[in-house]
Design a protein that fits this description.
metal-binding (chains A, B), homodimer, Aspartate Aminotransferase, domain 1, 12 helices, selenocysteine lyase activity (chains A, B), 395 residues, globular, seven-stranded mixed β-sheet, metal ion binding (chains A, B), Aspartate Aminotransferase, domain 2, transferase (chains A, B), alpha/beta
């Protein structure tokens, strides 16, 4: 690991830097230290700042203000959805084991809570496989997985490693058309998509989405955002009835204000944000083709709808695995989806049907809002050097 | 509600201001935006800052570093303990309904999750009553409540309204002596005591304590702190295996750093902190006696071991209820434990056996580290005016 902090940062799907305006908003909101439930002037100011943040989030996802429930992050939101949907199902029918449909490429904060409950015999789960040709699940395969006990369908909007968009809207409409008011709770983890592409919760057709601040230049908290259609799961954290009873716990005012500011910034410039990300990603992918890397690399799911900022690229001429390649890189940071062992590759890529030999040489490049074309030139130049077949330079 | 933000703040049990050093540490840590699990320099710095914070917390509560698990706050910690202890019990014996022992004066983040599970028939609960003469439960009454199905005993160390300390250490030793390795999980919510009196998790004899930053000049996050004895409950939030698997979710570096700084500040000056709090509280209570309020006020549980900063005082000569009194005060902020209705009083005071006529006239004064004796003079002067029997000034 280099000690050069000025490297080009191309791991924005892991976390983004804080926008300076977000940073300032948090620092200022540290002065709003009063308990928002108290009866004093600072408390009122804190409550107002939270209300404003809620408004920005509601606008970002096209929901009502009361649909926004602030949480400590995506992991809490996802665990809550699973716990809540199962609890509701149990209450409705105590004798039936609830069934959940998800995909085999979800974030661990979806897969792990499901697996634990499955192991304990509390639920059954169908992990719908993505089509290895496209990287996304089909609405038909989700539909085919429905059972009378299905209480939850949770499908991410964009995969964090491949960037491939899943047909959440199509799935929701298919399920709702078929099951009407008997539809299971429909959830989408939009952590990786939010702040990169517009997300309209109403037209998506979901009951709730998971949102995470630090994936779009905001802080490390998040939200569970409910559709105005009004179907909810019971709260997971009980206590002082904050967030209108949906999530107890004294409000973390500075974090909430920061998340609101990140949403405000996105609302203000979303068209430009998306086009900058896409421009960078496309420039990078075109450059790979133009350079000597032609025929020696594979961009996964190039033909599928993808996030505008993510390239999942296998460098086939590189003699070792992706982690090894990244360790050699000196100009930029990126990541692979797996621990750095020769015999391992990303479980997500494996689940996408990518053969081990290719998956193990794959690197995820995730561009940010401030990535420049000149930086991409530098990065591709280094990749070109490292991935070229042996030349005299190697001797 | 006045708009005078310079009022004397005597509601430190609701929340404390952020210590300026905590505020600065958070603002600086906003620069440590990298994902601590990533492999780059900023990530290493973030991980190191988190490790340092963990060390301060471990020192504050006399546990090993790996006993400190950062959470989003006390509500999460308390909900986790309940969920985890019940889950463990169910795993051990599927046919038995788990039993929990707690008190009738716990925080809502203990009482509400218990009540929900009780309503659903998932558990049975014994709410041990505090002795109305002392304001605390006896170890005997806890002992008498034990059943073979008891999986959790959760008893707060200090009550947030009365400030009365509960005999947690005595209870733990009694239970452990009796049940040995078959003891249920022993938990104490020390949210209100931490940062006011020293807490030694080892000698307290508990398996875990709930800690909340914003009660001791830290931020709105918290921790669940496990004893080195090594008995743990399973994690509640699953996903990316952060916090050594005990609490998943990308670490909220700035909040964790701030909590660590609050612990460091306490560790540095805890003797002085406690004596300042006690001096203020004692001065206030003596002044009430010296002034015209003699015989017209009651300090609840004056003879019991109490937090050094909390006075729960009923102003008997005041013609209306406590909320009304506080609304008339212009020099300071304090609180009552209940909504401002004539027919309601704090459920905690009610549970402590305080008659309605007295409980409804009760105000909680909670002093802070920077309260001055001169401020207390001002406060008592105003209280004296408002609570004196009618004089010519009222005509």
């Amino acid at each position: 690991m280099s000690s050069d902090i000025s490297r080009i940062y191309l791991d924005n799907n892991a976390t983004t830097p804080l926008d300076d305006r977000v940073k300032n908003s948090i620092s200022e909101a540290l002065n709003l230290w009063a308990n928002p439930s108290s009866n004093n002037e600072n408390a009122t100011k804190a409550a107002e700042a939270i209300a404003e943040a809620r408004n920005h989030l509601a606008r970002m996802f096209n929901v009502e203000n009361d649909g926004v429930v602030f949480t400590s992050g995506g992991t809490e939101s996802n665990n809550w959805v699973i716990e809540g949907a199962i609890q509701t199902a149990r209450k409705l029918n105590r004798n039936e084991i609830p069934h959940v449909i998800t995909t085999n490429i979800e974030h661990p904060s979806i897969l792990e809570p499901l697996k634990r409950r499955e192991e304990f015999g509390e639920i059954t789960v169908t992990y719908v496989s993505v089509n290895p040709l496209t990287g996304f699940v089909t609405s038909q395969s989700v539909n085919d997985s429905l059972t009378p006990s299905t209480c939850l369908i949770t499908i991410m909007l964009a995969n964090n490693e491949t960037g491939v968009l899943q047909p959440v809207e199509e799935i929701c409409h298919l399920i709702r058309d078929k099951l009407k008011e008997k539809s299971p709770f429909l959830h989408s983890d939009v952590a990786q998509a939010a702040g990169k592409i517009p997300i309209d919760v109403k037209s998506l057709g979901v009951d709730a989405v998971t949102v995470v601040g630090h994936k779009f230049y905001g802080p490390r908290n998040g939200a569970l955002i409910f559709s105005p259609r009004g179907i909810r799961i019971p709260p997971m954290l009980l206590g002082g009835n904050q967030e209108s009873g949906w999530r107890s716990g004294t409000e973390n005012t500075p974090m909430i204000v920061g998340l609101g500011e990140a949403a405000r910034i996105y609302n203000e410039g979303y068209t430009n944000i998306e086009s900058v990300l896409r421009q960078n990603r496309d420039y990078f992918e075109e450059l790979l083709v133009k350079k000597n890397l032609r025929n020696s690399h594979v961009i996964h799911f190039l033909g599928s709808p993808r996030l505008p900022n993510t390239s999942s690229v296998a460098f086939l001429d590189y003699p070792s695995h992706g982690c090894d390649l990244l360790e050699k890189c000196r100009t930029f940071y990126a990541s692979t989806g797996a621990a750095c062992h020769k015999n391992e590759c990303s479980p997500i890529l494996k689940a996408c049907g990518i053969p081990f030999a290719i998956a193990s040489k794959t690197v995820r490049i995730s561009f940010g809002r401030s990535t420049t074309l000149a930086q991409i030139d530098t990065v591709v130049e280094e990749l070109e050097k490292l991935c070229s077949p042996l030349t005299e330079n190697d001797f």
